[in-house]
Specification:
Blueprint lengths: L1 E11 L7 E8 L3 H10 L4 H8 L4 E7 L3 H9 L3 H4 L16
Antiparallel strand pairs: 1-2, 1-3
């Protein structure tokens, strides 16, 4: 499962828009277990930083797939376009999406 997390507010340097992040894209065999690790601050550094900054997050979108799809989506460098919270056109409900 590939998943996109949306942060309630951007993480990073507010004086540098390119130095901020508002999404995390990952993959997991057991999504619920992975999300629990994120909630506890275990795993991805950006998720630890979000936790330390008190930034809440939610699962914005999921896709059926694994690491290959995760890498393909990450190479696009455009998570806001994939996020239905940020982008209304991302709500189309494509194949393999939940």
């Amino acid at each position: 499962m590939v998943y996109l997390l949306h942060f309630a507010r951007p993480l990073g340097d507010p004086s540098n828009p390119r130095g901020q992040a508002q999404h995390y894209l990952g993959s997991a065999d057991d999504l619920e277990a992975r999300l629990e690790r994120h909630r506890q601050g275990n795993g991805a550094a950006i998720m630890r930083a979000a936790l330390a900054a008190g930034i809440t997050w939610e699962v914005a979108r999921t896709w059926d797939g694994g690491r290959d799809l995760e890498r393909k989506l990450k190479r696009q460098h455009n998570s806001p376009r994939l996020c239905p919270i940020c982008n209304n056109s991302a709500r189309w409900g494509g194949k393999g999406e939940r």
